[in-house]
Structure formats: structure tokens, C-alpha cells
Amino acid sequence: MIAQTGSDPAGLTSVTAYKQLEKRARVLSLIRQFFVEKQVLEVETPLLGRYPVTDPQLDNLRVENPFPLNITNATDWLYLQTSPEVAMKKLLVLGSGSIYQLAKAFRQDAPGRLHSVEFTLLEWYRVGGGIEELIDDLTNLLEKIIGPLPVEKISYREAFIQYAGIDPFTATIVELKNQAKKHIDVSFDGDRDIWLDLLLTHLVEPKLGVNRLTFIYDYPKSQAAMAKLSKDKDGYEVAKRFELYVNGVELANGYHELTDPVELAQRFKIDNERRQSLGKPVCNLDVDFLAALETGMPDCSGVAVGLDRLMLLV
Amino acid sequence: MATYSTNEFKKGLKLIIDGDPCNIVENEMVKPGKGQAFNRVRLKNLKTGRTWDKTYKSGESVEAADVMDVDMEYLYADGEFWHFMDPNTYEQIPASADAVEEAKLWLKEQDKCIITLWNDVPLTVTPPNFVELDVAETDPGLKGDTAQGGTKPATLSTGAVVRVPLFINEGDTLKIDTRTGEYVSRA
């Protein structure tokens, strides 16, 4: 279905394209200025990689390598990155210090109001400090771009209790399903995370970030992706992750990064098991990345900001 | 059984849901940052006219409705059925009162309508956007009122009642927008 997707994140075909590009250039320049002042290095990493992403909900676009490295008949695929995360983490391991990148990313997402196969990310790693410090820095950056807005920080659990009327950590799957079906007409069935995602997208997200920056933090352990785990104030094990919402739009996704190669390899394995259960191809693990982590990645937090979505707010 | 996958969903696609043919009015993909993608769809039941929202998990398959639109000419009503004819094959088909429910006040013999067929039976009838109908009954317009832009009710030959300017008389032929049910001009 990819062939027919109009991937035009910058709105280049619209009649207002020129004005949009002017605005975009101004925002890019503000971002670069912000990082120059903070002495964060701008980097560029390859768009094409040898390994696909294992995340069960993300799918790479791939191209055939015209100069295959292997001598078998198997096609040598190169994968367009879904984010520059892994490539940048390899730089962190090499001792780059804090870095950022304005990068194109590609995902097999059905195009829509907020989705495009091709889009631009601001990816940023802050060495030292957890998500609290990163949230503060990100708030400062956004203020320079979209002006000052009130900031709200609310945990995933509190947001669910307030807007979906259910405790996402203590409710059973059946309770989550019943609560979802009370509000949303669905015919499918699924696991715990599907009901959580359904309640999140339909009941919680539309209420978030009303003329403010709403940061949701402390995600369920099952949705940790590459974030560290920790205990929340009530003793529940949570992922040290945050998402930023502005007027119902998810704008940024941040982690206190997991640096332990053993745990990360374990999560990749679980990802692949989920991919299999979803009927998706299993991914080769990025052994270079896991080997790099063995030599030690510095404690850091990272965030990806959707630049095309940010432009909607400018 | 033909099916559509959610990534084929788009406005106007016809599906069978709980046995009834339905039309996709709107389709939006929603996806949390790191989670399951959903298609949030606004549907219209083509039998009952009811509109509601339903959500699909991306990748789900839904039964396709064997629904198609054909141009046909309205012939006559026999009290039970409204009869239409394919102008190319001269084939005639009867449409039920349910199918013409929204169209019947605008149907004039020989006008070309769009018939939505489901399993070859007329499901809905859509009249032309504009029709020309005669005024069967209206109060006489008063002289001098024409400039004031006032309106009065007029009953048309089909039984439809529309608001018309005061200068319209019985026997006049009017152009009506069937989508809004409003008077456009004298024909």
C-alpha cells in the first residue's frame, strides 16, 4: 500500500508551500541556535541500516542493496531507519557527549492527518540526568518556538484514572476490556496492551494538552520499549518514559535510556516473539549495537520530537 | 467472501457490519507513540440511515458489501413500488418504500436517479441534485410584495412543501435543490 501513500510531510505540493518552508527554516534555525548555546553537538547518521527495528508496532521500509555483501542468493536488504536512535546511541558509546539530530525517518504507517510514511524527527540525547531534566530542557526549547505555554505533568496512571475512569495498573484485562467497550464499538479481542492503547487513544489523549504542554510519565512496564524500569511513588514497576501532548497531539516521546545490554537483548527477544504472534517477520538483532553497549553507554535520557507535528503549532 | 483490510479503508467504501450494508463516512488512523494502531471509522448503515463510530485494530479484515451505484430513469409508482429503468438495457426494477424514503418527494418521471443496489436489490435512491417540479398549490402572491423578500409555503406536484418567494403562482415550474430541499429559481 506504500506506493499510493502521499508522503508529503512538509506540505510541499500545497499552494502555501513557500510560506510553510520559510516558517520551517525559521524553526530549524531556532532549534540549531538553542543547541549551539547548550553546546550540544549536531550529528548526522546513515538513513540506511543493515538491521530493521524490532519494535512490534513499527515496520521499516526497505530497499534492495545493489552491492550485496553476502554471496548467497538471498536478497541483501537495507532498511530505512524508523528513527536515528540506534545510530546515535552508537555515537554515545564512543563518547560523543550530548548530541542531537534533525533526521528523516520512515515508517510503514497508513497516512493520515498526523501520519506520513516519511517525516522528520528532532532526536536528542542528553548525557546525565533523568527524564525530569530532559522535560525541563525540552520545555525551554519549545518556548522559543511556540511561545510560553503552561506545563502540566501527570502520570500515565493518574491520566487513566482521571479520563478513562480506570486504574491501568490494577485493573484486570476483563475490566479494561469492559471499560473500553462501554465507550467504544469494537469487534476485535486482544491482550492487555491493546485495551490500554485503545483507552489511551480514544478516551485519554483527546483530553491532553489543552492549550498547554502535558507530559505523561511512568508508563506500564510492558510498554517500556528502550526505557529504564524503576518504581513509582506507590511501588509499581514503571518504565521511565514520557510523552508530550499539545492539544491532543502526541508531539514527543522520551526515555531514560536503558544501557544494560543483557536486558536490552532480552527485550529484543520479547519484541520478536510478539512480532511472530502478530504474523510479522522476525528481525535480525543489531549485534553491532549490542556489542557497543557491552563497552558501556553513558547514563542519558533521549527524546524524539515530531518536527512536522511541531510545525502545526507554529 | 470478499473482504477489505483496514489499510484499504477510505471514504465511500461499502462494508457489511452485523449483516447490514454500511458506508464509510470518515476514516482516521490513530496510533499511540509506541503502540497498536487503530482505524477510527464513522459508518452509516445504508438500510437504517444510522451513523455511528466504530474502531478497528489495524490489520483487521471486514466483509465487503456487494453494493454498486447505477444510473436509472424513474418511471412510475404503483402504490407499493417505485419503478426504475436502466436506459441502456431497458431492464426495469422495483424499489421499495424504504429505498425511496428520502427521494420520493423529488421523483419526477424520466428523471435520472442514482440507484444503490445491494445484491441487485435497490437499497437507496438518490434523486438528481436539481429537479424541476410544478407548483400544485400556493396562496396567491400579493402585488407589491415582491421586493420584500418574504416567503410562503408551496405544495409541489410530488407533495413536497417548500418555501418560495411571494411572487410564485400555482402552475409555475420551480427548480429545487434536492440536497437541501430548497427553492432555487423559477425554471
What topology emerges from the helices and strands here?
The complex is a heterodimer of chains A (314) and B (187).
Chain A: H1 17-37, E1 41-42, E2 48-49, E3 61-64, E4 77-80, H2 85-93, E5 99-106, E6 118-127, H3 131-146, E7 151-155, H4 156-163, H5 173-183, H6 192-204, E8 213-220, E9 229-231, E10 237-246, E11 249-256, H7 261-277, H8 287-294, E12 300-306, H9 307-311
Parallel strand pairs in A: 1-5, 7-8
Antiparallel strand pairs in A: 2-4, 3-4, 5-6, 6-12, 8-10, 9-10, 10-11, 11-12
Chain B: E1 3-5, E2 14-17, E3 20-30, E4 38-45, E5 51-57, E6 61-63, E7 67-77, E8 82-85, E9 92-95, H1 97-100, E10 112-118, E11 121-126, E12 130-138, E13 151-156, E14 161-165, E15 173-177, E16 182-186
Antiparallel strand pairs in B: 1-6, 2-3, 3-4, 4-5, 7-8, 7-10, 8-9, 10-11, 12-13, 12-15, 13-14, 15-16
Brief sketch in words of this structure:
Chain A is of the alpha+beta class and 314 residues long.
Molecular structure report:
The complex is a heterodimer of chains A (314) and B (187). Chain A has one domain (12-150, 211-311): Bira Bifunctional Protein, Domain 2 (BirA Bifunctional Protein, domain 2, 2-Layer Sandwich), CATH 3.30.930. Helix content of chain A is 34%, strand content 23%. Chain A has helices at 17-37, 85-93, 131-146, 156-163, 173-183, 192-204, 261-277, 287-294, 307-311; strands at residues 41-42, 48-49, 61-64, 77-80, 99-106, 118-127, 151-155, 213-220, 229-231, 237-246, 249-256, 300-306. In chain A, β10 and β11 form a beta hairpin. Chain A is globular, with a radius of gyration of 20 Å. Residues 1-7 of chain A have low confidence and may be disordered. Chain B has one helix spanning 97-100, and strands at residues 3-5, 14-17, 20-30, 38-45, 51-57, 61-63, 67-77, 82-85, 92-95, 112-118, 121-126, 130-138, 151-156, 161-165, 173-177, 182-186. In chain B, strands 9-8-7-10-11 form a five-stranded antiparallel sheet. Chain A binds chain B through residues 1, 55, 57, 109-113, 115, 184-188, 190, 193-194, 196-198, 200-202, 205, 223, 225, 243, 250, 253, 278, and chain B through 6-8, 28-40, 52-60.
